[in-house]
Amino acid sequence: MPKFSIEIGVSLDSLESVSTKAEELNFDGIFYGDSLSSYQLECWTAIAIISSYTKVIRVGPAVTFPLIRHPSVLARTAATIDQFSNGRLEFRVGLGGKTMKSDSKKYGFDFTTYENRVKILDESLQIMKSLWTKKETNFNGEYFNLKEASQEIIPVQKDGPPVTISGKSDSVLELLEKHGDVWESGGKKDEDYGSLIRKVDDICSRGNRTKIDKSIEVFVLMNGNANQTYEIFDGWNF
Prior knowledge:
- The protein is an alpha/beta fold.
- The protein is about 45% helix and about 15% strand.
- It has a 4-stranded parallel sheet, with helices on one face.
- Helix 1 packs across helix 2, helix 2 (about 45-55) runs parallel beside helix 3 and helix 6 crosses helix 7.
């Protein structure tokens, strides 16, 4: 059965009314945008606030970026919110597009190459899942190293919150077989989604996995300037 969620980036003044209305209208999830330079609140703090206003709706980031958050910190943040929300967290991750590239330049993060960002995401998900499920984590990677790391704050949801991986490239799709529970695609470009879905199922079947859930993000933007509208969409595309 299809599920419908909304993504928001509203101010603190509107956060309670929008969140409670989404739950009243029986949306399945409400996800908050993650950006350093926009008008939005800090993403994970906003998610915690949303979870305090609601009771049953799923909560999480629209897409969060391990590129700008150490996986150990992100794992603890996510586990804390999963506890506070009584197991309602959806952990949604991606590599970031033009908007994150711009944010990284402004705030001193290394946006690095696409393939390096894939490796960072891969290592981050390995570390977070280990911290959520094991008494001790040792990890020696290209980007992160943990030694005898333990985390007593663990998610309510068994094995951690569901992981949604956003993106369309072959490199990102390969991560689905290892880490993903849901695949999400979005952006302004018209794509052959049927072909992408078949590719996702094929990749997951290599690891003897059942077909994973799919999600398509649809943007709605009202603007009288067509060129400006496409420019904004281009920053959101992934």
